[in-house]
Design goal:
The complex is a heterodimer. By secondary structure, chain A is mainly alpha-helical. Helices cover about 70% and strands about 0% of the residues of chain A. In chain B, helix 2 crosses helix 3 and helix 2 packs parallel to helix 4. Classes of the chains: A mainly alpha, B alpha+beta. The interface between A and B is medium-sized, with 17 and 22 residues.
Chain lengths: ~300, ~375
């Protein structure tokens, strides 16, 4: 169908609209909030609503003052709380990513090698947890891990332990929560990658003298590199800023940048500092996102 | 049809004392109730190119995969060079396989692909490099060592796969439809290259193919497979000229088959009355079948002579009308319809450029030499 000529004269075409919509979406829900946050990060704190001073002010007649306050950023580097929690966040995200990879790879491999009928059921089981709220699922872990929770009760009943173990509000509980929640993000891209794998390559490797584990190490593993990278980025990037799981399962010592941001924002009402933290976090994560994008591009180019 | 010489000149299969290099002893492979390979025994001699020929699903690939160690036989044993290989995994067999899909490692260069098996064996680096280079030269891929598989054409990939499977100097090379993915011209060219290479290296080949022409060109011997069994094994000319069943006669080349009853059974000749032909077939050699038994006489199209004038005699002569002609350049195929309704296929070489052409609907006489028909009882 041809677009209406009048619209075309205005430069509006069907294709243009289709392309414009996602950009409009991004403009509205990503660029605009980002600009606002960026603006706040350069403001002064104020005891008002909202709790910061405007960046641009009219002073007197016909003069406009723009005041860019860099103190918020400087502050991030003077107080060790920020870089310590940032480093800790990266450490937690990194370890979680490795754990997800260790748990997710065998699962994705198993699904990819299963028969077609079983495969769909297994995939459904991976996706199923998404049908309930993340918060509910994390709360469920509290029920499992707490002192008189399911795990302790079973262990006591079996006689393995005589006193309940402290599981909840420990780093262990936090890692369990993060790995559990992010596992599908690791499994799905890995599965998509492994599913395309030509299994005859493994036979060829065995034919040329590889034991099955050697064939896996020399053929499957390198060929699934892009899947592993994609899955790792999908876990690592959001895990760095993770707030809910450490707060609920990790206890008071879990010093995460997301937690610091929350505290600055809601407890201290220090919006400018909180905004600066948010911007810094973004700046740190952008290279990872770009890397992920290039991996994705390579992956889809390789598929062709 | 061309017949290959291969590396075997002396035909060891005719010598009962010759030691087979590969011995397949009563191998059966079942998948549930289905017997993919059913009680197959086979002796393959050193330096042979043995072709397993059959339609898809006849069990030829399963048999090949058992030789390679990718499938375990349900029963029976496999010996290679005197050693029992039945339960030995692929990575411990002195056997290499060239896969139908080539199965080249996409993340490695041509060189790395070929070197893979040698590296796996822990050979010194210098020797690996030398052997890989020699092998690549042999398959004429010397200039492509640093390419990745996706940068190669189909024919080049095929050669990399061949080089990779030969570089380990296996006792036995298994080839699964080695030329299946190539176009016709390239396939013919590669067939002869493959024979030359095999001759040069002296490796024993077992080739699986569904293409009878390919089998005829490559093989020292052919094993025709059907429903998991080897129905006949022999040299290409044995298979073509002396098929032991209707199936083999029909599967290898084209053939006219006439059903009939044995009416005269002498040690020197037999006479078959065929309603299908509407006449009698005189065969100048004895056969082993009871008088009165239903038999089939198979006559190859190139052994049927066609003329407009009536030939002498009454045996092996039949009249019909030309129904269709296919001019192929070097020869023409005529389909002649007999009064009984049976259509006989005749091929005649176009020996002259200005032959007085037999045309459509013309009445012709067909005849053949009494030695030409092959009589089969099943």
């Amino acid at each position: 169908m041809k677009p209406a000529p009048r619209l075309q004269r205005l430069g509006i075409t069907g294709r243009g609209l289709v392309v414009a919509l996602p950009y409009l979406w991004l403009l509205l829900f990503f660029v605009a909030p980002f600009v606002i946050v960026l603006k706040i990060s350069f403001s002064d704190v104020d005891l008002a609503i909202p709790p910061y001073k405007p960046l641009i002010e009219w002073i007197g007649k016909n003069s406009l003052a723009i005041k860019v306050n860099l103190n918020n950023y400087a502050f991030l580097f003077t107080d060790s709380l920020y870089w310590k929690s940032l480093l800790n966040s990266i450490k937690v995200a990194f370890i979680s990513t490795l754990l997800c990879l260790a748990v997710g790879y065998p699962m994705a491999y198993g699904i990819a090698r299963a028969r077609a009928a079983t495969r769909n059921v297994l995939l459904l089981l991976v996706i199923l947890p998404f049908w309930t709220s993340l918060l509910l699922r994390v709360y469920a872990w509290i029920g499992l891990l707490k002192a008189n929770g399911v795990i302790n009760n079973i262990l006591m009943w079996l006689g393995v332990i005589h006193e309940p173990l402290t599981l909840l509000y420990t780093p262990l509980a936090m890692y369990v929560g993060i790995v559990y929640s992010y596992l599908p993000f690791m499994i799905l891209p890995l599965y998509a990658n492994l599913e395309k794998m030509d299994w005859q390559l493994l036979e060829a490797a065995e034919d040329l003298g590889c034991r099955p584990w050697q064939a896996f190490y020399k053929i499957t593993l390198p060929l699934s590199r892009n899947g592993m990278l994609a899955g790792s980025m999908l876990v690592f990037i959001p895990a760095v800023g993770e707030f809910v799981i450490p707060a609920l399962l990790g206890g008071p010592n879990a010093l995460m940048i997301g937690r610091v941001l929350w505290d600055e924002f809601f407890s201290n009402r220090a919006w400018p500092v909180a905004s600066a933290v948010a911007i810094l976090l973004l700046v740190i994560l952008v290279p990872f996102m770009m890397w992920y994008q290039s991996v994705q591009a390579r992956e889809s180019a390789g598929a062709r | 049809m061309a017949t290959s010489t291969g590396a075997v000149k002396a035909a060891p299969w005719t010598d009962p004392n010759a030691k087979p290099y590969v011995q397949v002893d009563r191998i059966t492979k079942s998948f549930g109730d289905f017997k993919a390979v059913d009680d197959v025994s086979l002796k393959i001699y050193k330096g042979e190119i043995f072709c397993l020929l059959g339609a898809s699903g006849c069990g030829k690939t399963t048999l090949l995969r058992m030789l390679g160690g990718f499938e375990t036989p349900t029963s029976g044993r496999i010996f290679i060079d005197g050693e029992d290989m039945t339960g030995v995994p692929p990575y411990e067999r002195p056997v290499n396989m060239m896969f139908q899909s080539y199965a080249l490692f996409p993340h490695m260069t041509v060189e790395q692909n070929v070197a893979f098996g040698l590296k796996q064996d822990g050979l010194p680096k210098r020797e690996i490099a030398a052997r890989v280079a020699t092998m690549l030269d042999l398959v004429k891929l010397g200039g492509f060592a640093k390419r990745k598989p996706h940068q190669l054409s189909g024919g080049q990939k095929q050669r990399v796969a061949l080089a990779r499977s030969l570089v380990k100097r296996p006792k036995l090379l298994l080839l699964d439809e080695p030329l299946g993915a190539l176009d016709k011209k390239l396939r013919e060219h590669t067939q002869f290259e493959l024979i030359g290479l095999q001759d040069q290296l002296g490796v024993t080949f077992v080739v699986v193919t569904h293409d009878q022409e390919e089998a005829m060109t490559l093989a020292s011997r052919i094993g025709v497979m059907d429903h998991g069994e080897i129905v006949q094994a022999g040299t290409p000319s044995e298979i073509y000229e002396f098929p032991n069943s209707k199936f083999v006669a029909d599967f290898v080349g084209s053939v006219n088959i006439f059903e009939g009853k044995l009416v005269e059974d002498e040690p020197e000749f037999v006479r078959i009355a065929s309603d299908e032909l509407g006449g009698t077939i005189y065969v100048s050699h004895g056969i082993s079948a009871a008088p009165g038994a239903v038999v089939w006489a198979a006559v190859r199209p190139e052994k049927v002579f066609m003329s407009t004038a009536p030939p002498e005699g009454t045996d092996n002569v039949v009249r019909g009308a030309v129904q269709d002609i296919a001019y192929l350049g070097d020869l023409s195929i005529y389909l002649v319809k007999l009064p009984t309704g049976k259509v006989v296929r005749v091929t005649q070489p176009n020996t002259s450029r200005h032959a007085e052409a037999i045309t459509w609907d013309q009445q012709v006489y067909l005849t053949w030499d009494p030695s030409s028909p092959v009589v089969v009882t099943r």
